[in-house]
Amino acid sequence: MQFVEYSDTSDLNAQFAQRVAGLLANAIETKGQASLVVSGGRTPLPFFKALSNADIDWSKVAITLADERWVEQSSDASNTALVLQNLIQNKASKATFVELKTSEDSAFGAEASVSANLNSLSFPIDVLILGMGEDGHTASLFPCSEQIDQGLSSDKVCLAVQPTTAPHERMSLTLKSLLNSEQIFVHLVGESKKVVLDKALAGDDVKEMPIRAILKQDSTPVDVIWAAK
Ligand SMILES: O=C(O)[C@H](O)[C@@H](O)[C@H](O)[C@H](O)COP(=O)(O)O
């Protein structure tokens, strides 16, 4: 794991966007296509805007989410809406979006259809960008959920999850899918996230803080990207 600190979020957003765009451009050059998996939440919003202006061949890029809340796109909680409105814009409007939310009423009836959607993505994921919650969750691998053991050990591509400390059913990529990436970034902003990161690094119980399963492995390179404000 590498820790990269930026002086502030505008420095982080500009440099991180350049780095991600470079990795996607390399993948396009070597494989003819690239896959980018992003997270929702509030942290990535200004970064998405910076990345959407990167000068790469976005028509060769497929984008999806590491996790989605099972809500309609009209909801403020929709990560799909966040990505469509903030990332798949400007130059990046030519990218293809692979839906993680399908028409089923419950995420628990939708694993098969979401897996089918994800089959159109080229694995390994070229760039995976994760966030982290104050409880140490990442994607929707929530320590509080009944599905946490499965999320950390299942061979499935994605898993329906019901957190007990956060609203909405979720669909999450499993740990196995998340680690099937060429490069992982954990994107954090603020002192409170740094406190949670330090706590995660100081322990080993992955069920207590699922982000540890990303930070404390050495099969996939991980950069933690952080700015205090
Ligand atoms: O849909 C989600 O909620 C996420 O993908 C989740 O894993 C998020 O990245 C963290 O909860 C951090 O969220 P913030 O950026 O809002 O702190």
From TrEMBL:
The main enzyme category here is hydrolase
UniProt GO MF annotations: 6-phosphogluconolactonase activity
Q: In which pathway does it act?
A: Carbohydrate degradation; pentose phosphate pathway; D-ribulose 5-phosphate from D-glucose 6-phosphate (oxidative stage): step 2/3
What keywords are annotated for this sequence in UniProt? Answer: Hydrolase
Domain Glucosamine/galactosamine-6-phosphate isomerase, by residue range, is: 8-218
- Whether Zinc counts among this entry's keywords is no
Task: Give the catalytic activity.
Answer: 6-phospho-D-glucono-1,5-lactone + H2O = 6-phospho-D-gluconate + H(+)
Check the record and name the Pfam families matching this protein.
Glucosamine_iso
Q: Which domain of life is it from?
A: Bacteria
Which Enzyme Commission number(s) are listed? 3.1.1.31
Say which family it is in: Belongs to the glucosamine/galactosamine-6-phosphate isomerase family. 6-phosphogluconolactonase subfamily.
Role: Hydrolysis of 6-phosphogluconolactone to 6-phosphogluconate.
Name of this chain's protein:
6-phosphogluconolactonase
